[in-house]
Amino acid sequence: MAVFGPFPIDRPEFPIGIAVSGGADSLCLAWLMRRWRRAVFAFVVDHGLRSDSAIEARDTARRLTEMDIPVEVLRLDDLDGTRRVQANARDARYRSLAKACAAHGILDLALGHHQRDQIETFLIRQNHGSTSHGLAGMALSRETPALRYLRPLLRIPPDRLRATLRAASLGWVEDPSNRNPAFERVRIRQSLSTVRSATSLQEIGVHAGRRNQAQFRTAALTVGIRMDRLGFAVMETLPRDVALLGRLWQIVSGAAYPPAPHILAALIARPEPMTLGGAMLCRAGKLGPGWLLLREPAAARSRIPVAEGTLWDNRFRASGPPPGPGLTIAALGTASRDFRSSGLPSRVLASLPALWRGEHLADVPSLEAAACPGEVGFRVTFSPSLSLTEASFWPEYAQ
Length: 399
Description:
The protein is of the alpha+beta class. The protein is 35% helix and 18% strand. The chain has a 6-stranded mixed β-sheet, sandwiched between helices. A 5-stranded antiparallel β-sheet has the order 7-8-11-10-9. The chain is globular. The model is unreliable at 369-376 and 386-399 (pLDDT under 50).
């Protein structure tokens, strides 16, 4: 754990979270974390996709309680198990974990990914044509504005984790989906050999080195890229690095993943206006020479109630007390015509977060000139999901 430190003092008010599925890997992580520190808090996610999942979640919670670890079971009720089961379950799991961590004041969440998970991830990304950035595998830690994800077991083979549990006379849950060849990860796992695993680890190391070199290269490229606090980017030219353009696209769109590398490579070779994955690339126009990358207005249509800490469109976060009851936050949309004096392109304005009372516009808090007089303390600010390395490209967000 020293590579992630320093940590807050080991007291109950400063817990470190642990995501526990009930399988051997995450249960061993919890056992090790509890021996390292008293102030830990475990979360067990019940996906509800199997008839016995609730029983397994309760059994896992009981094991954690016996380890003297506080635990909360998080039930997911919005998964139907019909399409993209693993991907949808993963996304819902991380959303639920992030919300639970925020409720408990937890800033660090430990995950049970181990060495074989890393190899499988590399091979999946290799099959899908990832760049060196993706082929470097999962990072030991990943930071978001509200939570840091830690993977302390990433270099440890799973057999050692199971041996540790057996030595401690601890049982665990075996998820039958981990043996279902309908899933790509399972097929890869079943095909792994010692030679292939060793080769994959070497390749991951090579790509990690290339990614580190690319970070310095892309840092120099940012001289011609301006990331605006309203969530759009202006580029004199498109960056030649596919990974960097993908990160920019991901930040602007709020998407979980960047567009496919081959599409971005073709765009770099022949730049042209394009709408892709929730973001739009067009000429910068009144913002200067070059290109403008912005959120696609038509994709930013969600409407949610305003509350402290609300994350809208996966890009903007509200802070401070809401300026009145009954407000929702949604895109400014066609009401952007009333703000043309701001000097911003109409498409940028249309995708900005606005406060609405019913169908009546109340405020556009991200535009300082539009803020309601006397509404002190409430803000809606661009909150991109960046790791520390990526945040270093944008000094205004590095804090």
